Records
---
Amino acid sequence: HVDNSTLIRTALCDADPVSRTHTLAELPLSGKLNLRGNSDDEDFRQAVEGVLELALPIRANTTANNAERQLFWLGPDEWLITMPLEQLASIAESLNTALGTQHAAVTEISDYYTTVEFRGPQAREVIRAASPLDIRPENFGPGQCAQTRFGHASILLWPVDETPSFRIQVRWSYAQYVYDYLADSMRNAEAIGTISS
């Protein structure tokens, strides 16, 4: 959660984290790049992998990550790269240099999306109530991701671990809506006893 005393503000910097049996909080702002290119082109793959030190995920709805960066498959020719904010400029420059004249594009989208983490024993049930995506553990586990609907919002959803814990990336304009929906769902479930507080 970004310190409000700094000049960096996030979509939910004024929202209080929710901490009960289930927890909900906005993650610190990270650097985000949208990458477009041809995954069938070995030169493209090698250029990206050389800079990021990650194998480009080419199977639908999969991710790759190391200690600092994560790659998300968004489509046959599109990926999301996340990294610490302080690495953003150097990675963008290195990617553009490595890709050279290839038919590819690197676009910064850091201030377009924010990410929240939702964790707890009934997290799947709460998310499933607002999304048509089949997120049963046997179909959707760590190492996978999916773009889907969450109520009225478009999101990128991925499981972090088997807690279960999920991260939800959402446009800033819909961040408060998604956050409030999750927080209210937790409170309502606790009130009727389906989630213990």
---
Amino acid sequence: VEGVPVWDAGIAAPPYRPGVLDPEAGRCAVEWLVAAVKLVQAGGAAGLVTCPLNKEGIHRAGYPWQGHTDLIAAMTGTKDYAMSVFADDMRAVHVSAHLSLRDAIAVLSTERILTTIQIADDALARMKLPRRRIAVAGLNPHAGEAGAFGREEIEIIAPAIDAARREGIDCSGPHPADTVFRRMAAGEFDVVVALYHDQGHIPLKLVAMERGVNVTLGIPIVRTSVDHGTAYDIAGTGTASEESLCCAIDLAARLAGG
């Protein structure tokens, strides 16, 4: 029988009101996600593909989560995980995700950057890429210009890169962030480790907004998602693009070995 199987998670949806922020819809978004993660953990599915959820909606429903990623990490008992964006041959893996810029800089550490490099290398290996060339972006303008514009590159970032190389990982940097993504687009690198959310998201969304896929790496299950928000302003109008969702399904199948 051909068709799309639909699984009832046991929680009824609220009334259909496109584009309306509804705490009950936020509750459903969280509880349906919890049910889906449990299904994958139990072997009932090979991976998880998520559509966007509204963070304000889930907060109004009384949940503390910032989004899918931290909830899934908590459910799977994962300490070291990373948000990433994949779009064709452009890929960015982030050292931090939904933090203010001030907080994102404060949490930078050699250990955290090294872990992110290791997670990125593992993801490329799972995709069976012929090469796994990892570039690490700098934090400051011109990657600090030998300490003239900040010492994070010297004291925090470079030691992580050196440690990764000692493990045999093909890793280089820190590279100036204003050119490293262009170099990846030209084929020089297979992934860029971005040091904060917008550093990785802005260039990839600029060149491949419709094809971008958000991937949670480091967790023990396959999880991909669209790389856009809920777009309440066009909800129910029939004008949204399905391309990112199709790409997310395709990449999930690839990561799951299908």
